[in-house]
């Protein structure tokens, strides 16, 4: 049996994967890039990650930031003060701030999935998580296939987007859209 290592892009099934496998059955290095995970665990494990539609992932990031009281997860003072929610124009301003301000662009929460997963051997689309876990169990020669217990354990209210905001996010994450086949 080959060990598995899950390279977790924020807001792409991390809770589901850790609950499905358990801490003893898989390396869970946290929110790191593929290259950082390889430095931690070497070449032995079978590395995989889950990718998610960039717009849905970004909406989940924003919902997490709204819900969080942790300044590391919600680094923008305006967003912290605006709780419990923002108007659509406030969301647009926050969106522009996150994606265009150099201070926030390198946050793993904001960085593209493509940038975090350069050269990773296996990616599973979030939308096909059950089938992906079965595939990874086969690749790693595990005798037991883990079962996902819940679809989305960390649900938050997600913001509604205007067409303009939707387009802006798709354009910002154009590499993810193309690489992972999202429209």
What is the terminal separation in angstroms? 37 Å
Main sheet characteristics: 4 strands, parallel
> Strand order of the main beta sheet, please?
2-1-3-4
Mean pLDDT: 77
Number of strands: 4
Q: Poorly predicted ranges (pLDDT <50, ≥5 residues)? A: 82-88
Structural class: alpha/beta
**Per the principal axes of the C-alpha atoms, what is the gross shape?**
elongated
Q: Fraction of residues in helices? A: 40-55%
The overall number of domains is 1
> Helix and strand succession?
EHEHEHHHHHEHHH
DSSP helical segment count: 10
**Share of residues in strands:** 5-15%
Radius of gyration: 17 Å
Q: Briefly, what is this?
A:
This protein has 183 residues and is an alpha/beta fold. It contains ten helices and four strands; from the N terminus they run βαβαβαααααβααα.
Protein described:
The protein has helices spanning 14-21, 34-41, 54-67, 77-82, 88-100, 102-105, 113-116, 129-139, 163-172, 174-179; strands at 4-6, 26-27, 46-51, 122-125. It is built from ten helices and four strands; from the N terminus they run βαβαβαααααβααα. The chain has a four-stranded parallel β-sheet, with helices on both faces. 46% of the residues lie in helices and 8% in strands. The chain is elongated, with a radius of gyration of 17 Å. The protein has one domain (4-179). The longest helix has 14 residues, at 54-67. The chain has 183 residues and is an alpha/beta fold.
Map the helices and strands.
Layout (H helix, E strand, L loop, with lengths): L3 E3 L7 H8 L4 E2 L6 H8 L4 E6 L2 H14 L9 H6 L5 H13 L1 H4 L7 H4 L5 E4 L3 H11 L23 H10 L1 H6 L4
Parallel strand pairs: 1-2, 1-3, 3-4
């Amino acid at each position: 049996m080959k060990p598995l290592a899950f390279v977790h892009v924020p807001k792409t099934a991390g809770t589901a994967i850790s609950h499905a496998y358990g801490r003893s059955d898989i390396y869970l290095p946290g929110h790191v890039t593929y290259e950082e995970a390889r430095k931690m665990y070497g070449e032995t494990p079978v590395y995989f990650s889950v990718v998610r539609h960039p717009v849905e992932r970004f909406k989940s990031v924003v919902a997490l930031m709204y819900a969080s009281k942790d300044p590391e997860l919600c680094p923008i003072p305006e967003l912290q003060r605006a709780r419990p929610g923002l108007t659509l124009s406030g969301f647009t301003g926050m969106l522009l701030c996150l994606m265009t301000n150099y201070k926030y662009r390198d946050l793993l929460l904001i960085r593209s999935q493509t940038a975090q997963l350069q050269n990773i051997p296996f990616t599973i689309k979030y939308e096909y998580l059950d089938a992906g876990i079965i595939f990874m169990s086969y690749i790693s020669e595990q005798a037991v296939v883990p079962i996902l217990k819940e679809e989305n354990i960390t649900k938050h209210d997600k913001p509604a987007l205007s067409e303009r905001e939707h387009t802006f996010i798709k354009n910002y994450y154009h590499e993810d859209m193309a690489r992972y086949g999202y429209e």
